[in-house]
Amino acid sequence: MTEEAVTAPIGEGMVGETAPPAEAPAPVETPVEAPTVEAAPVPVPEPAEVDVSAFKFPEKFAGQLQAFAKNSGVTQEALTQLFEGYTTADTEVKAAAWAEMASKGQEYVASWGEQKDANLEVVRQTLKRVDTDGTVSKMLNETGYGNHPAILKMFLEIGDTFKEGGFLESAGNPSAAPQTAAQRMFGSSHPTD
């Protein structure tokens, strides 16, 4: 055993058992004051005026957007990134929709079989005949609806009515017997003789 270990007297505990060392007094803690640091005032920038003219918004919305950006502290850079991201996503969605519509249009045209070329010519000629100033053609090209099966079907049906011997709707009933002037003026209660 070491000299530091104290053995318990015989009869108290087991032979050779060492007593725990005496506890040392706890150190006295002296409070230490933290140095005071004065925070420098953080300069708050004046809200900047943002230019939303590049985004082609309606005038009322553009004014509201400018007010929001100014009051919220949105920077021109953040606003530009936001709307460029939106524009990119919007363009991708529109491109996917156009591709899908074109695919459906091609499937519909393919369903015409051997009449495909003749029917497409009827559609083209009908559009040319009813759209004399090109407004409808421009709209169909800009929106992609020129490939929509319903539009193709509509112009084909209209074109079929323009063909010689096509469907003509008259204002009168051709199966009715001719009426006299008196019957037309006074109705069916007037005698025919």
Query: How far apart lie the N and C ends?
Result: 153 Å
Number of helices: 6
| Helix proportion | 40-55%
How many β strands by DSSP?
Answer: 0
- Sequence of secondary-structure elements: HHHHHH
Strand fraction band? under 5%
Spatial shape: elongated
Biggest sheet, open or closed, and with what strands and sense? none
- Kindly state the mean pLDDT as a whole number? 75
Q: Which residues sit in consecutive blocks of at least 5 with pLDDT less than 50?
A: none
Class from helix and strand fractions: mainly alpha
Give your account of this protein's structure.
The chain is mainly α. Among the domains are: 49-99; 112-164, no CATH class. Helices cover 48% and strands 0% of the residues. It contains six helices and no strands. Helix 3 packs across helix 5. The chain starts with 58 loop residues before the first helix and ends in a 7-residue tail after the last helix. The model has no long low-confidence stretch (mean pLDDT 75).
Features:
single chain, 193 residues, mainly alpha, elongated
